[in-house]
Amino acid sequence: MDLGSHPTFESHDDGTVLTSAPQDAPVDRATAAARRVVDAMLRTDRANANLDRVAEELNSIADHLEEHAPAVAERLIDMWNGEGVTRHDPVTGPENAIAPPIVLEGLSDGSVRGEVTLTMPYQGPPGCVHGGVSALILDHVLGVANAWGGQAGMTAQLNVRYHRPTPLFEPLTVTGRQMSVEGRKINTVGSITTADGEVCVSVEGLFIDAAVPRPR
Ligand SMILES: CCCCCCCCCCCCCC(=O)SCCNC(=O)CCNC(=O)[C@H](O)C(C)(C)COP(=O)(O)OP(=O)(O)OC[C@H]1O[C@@H](n2cnc3c(N)ncnc32)[C@H](O)[C@@H]1OP(=O)(O)O
């Protein structure tokens, strides 16, 4: 996969931030507010929060945003211009309200690392992170680890092992690291651990060096 000018551990310093940290921009502020709404909706008192009025106001906001939306094809071109995936993806994208969003940094040993505390919208079992959310996060983190390692690709297989329930409302560390590259086949591993070092989820991924063309 053509990585353009993405940083790698051989060309960049330990601690290089690989994702787009939230900026002081209207889109980042609006998306952070939307994220807050999604979280608050799950926490609010369903009987007394006047949710009919909330629905009306949120629909009016959605109407306004849709009125200003260009054609999907145009928007896709815009999304994939320049910095690309890191602004809108569902794991690290500050412009995507479903992303926590996680900031990832690249380390000089070739691994990538980030910290996140997940809340209600990411719940699976009571008080714990949904297994699909863990897989989503790790798939993406492995993709970024591959870019940092110097050769990236499409996920062909993701083997997920759930060692213990992953807690919500606690800081978690996510890591990824490219282990080997054989021709187009890339093997990458990653994990989600608690602050005291307990491994909750570990993954092994097989990526194939291939790319879907960018819209233009
Ligand atoms: C630095 C920071 C920047 C961050 C930017 C980046 C962040 C990005 C993060 C985003 C992260 C998100 C990531 C996402 O969400 S990626 C989205 C999820 N993944 C997909 O949608 C992939 C869909 N599948 C495909 O497109 C194709 O099947 C691929 C491309 C995978 C291979 O089709 P292709 O036609 O190209 O390959 P080939 O058939 O010539 O085979 C080639 C070799 O590979 C072997 N093989 C193939 N498949 C498998 C398999 N499943 N298990 C085992 N082996 C497999 C095959 O046997 C052969 O081996 P050999 O016979 O040569 O020995």
Features:
alpha+beta; Thiol Ester Dehydrase, Chain A; globular; binds tetradecanoyl-COA; EC 3.1.2.2; hydrolase
> Helical region count?
5
- What is the CATH superfamily label? Hotdog Thioesterase
Structural class: alpha+beta
The Cα radius of gyration reads 19 Å
Distinct ligand kinds: tetradecanoyl-COA
Inertia-based shape: globular
User: What is the top-level CATH class?
Assistant: Alpha Beta
Please, what is the average pLDDT?
95
The N- and C-terminal alpha carbons lie at a distance of: 17 Å
Indicate the CATH architecture. Roll
Q: In order across it, which strands form the biggest sheet? A: 1-2-3-5-6-7-4
Q: What's the total number of strands?
A: 7
Helix-strand pattern: EHHHHEEHEEEE
Determine the CATH topology: Thiol Ester Dehydrase, Chain A
Biggest β-sheet description: 7 strands, antiparallel
**Beta-strand residue fraction:** 15-25%
Which stretches of 5+ consecutive residues score pLDDT under 50?
none
Helix content: 25-40%
Protein name: Acyl-coenzyme A thioesterase THEM4
Region (Disordered): 1-28
Catalytic activity: octanoyl-CoA + H2O = octanoate + CoA + H(+); hexadecanoyl-CoA + H2O = hexadecanoate + CoA + H(+); tetradecanoyl-CoA + H2O = tetradecanoate + CoA + H(+); (5Z,8Z,11Z,14Z)-eicosatetraenoyl-CoA + H2O = (5Z,8Z,11Z,14Z)-eicosatetraenoate + CoA + H(+)
InterPro entries: HotDog_dom_sf (IPR029069), RHA1_ro05818_N (IPR048654), THEM4/THEM5_acyl-CoA_thioest (IPR052365), Thioestr_dom (IPR006683)
